[in-house]
Specification:
The protein is mainly alpha-helical. The protein has 6 helices and 2 strands.
Length: 130
């Protein structure tokens, strides 16, 4: 059940955010229940999708660089206890070979950061960082 759910979520993530033509390989792997084709699909993705380079990072403005830094500080699936843990246990991702993250982060600026701001206010001046 867990693998089926994960495959479904990964399929949606790939279809909506993946810029390459591997969606047909993913669909074929899903339809034929082929672990080998799924592995090939992910291996292709790894080869074709590089993280932001230090040179690219240096060209970004201060705000965007800081957002990247915050993300890196908070998101580490192999040290999930740093952010309060997981309902499935702190070692839920230890055997994972690949980690898929979203391709954008929404950033906004507010006068104060309170419960009402987080729940009710639509951020003005919203930026998307890719």
């Amino acid at each position: 059940m867990k693998q089926c759910l994960l495959t479904g979520i990964l399929s949606l993530a790939l279809v909506f955010s993946w810029g390459q033509k591997q969606d047909s390989l993913l669909l074929k792997a899903y339809r034929t229940n082929s672990s080998e084709e799924l592995e090939q699909c992910f291996n292709n993705w790894v080869r074709e999708s590089a993280p932001i380079s230090p040179a690219e990072m240096s060209k970004l403005n201060d705000t965007v660089r800081e957002v990247y830094q915050v993300f890196r500080e908070f998101y580490n699936p192999l040290e999930i206890e740093r952010i309060g843990g997981s309902e499935w246990g702190n070692h839920v991702y230890d055997k994972s070979k690949y980690f898929i993250v979203q391709n954008e982060i929404r950033v906004g600026f507010v006068e104060n950061l309170g419960k009402d701001t987080l729940l009710l206010q639509e951020f003005s001046g919203r930026h998307r960082i890719r």
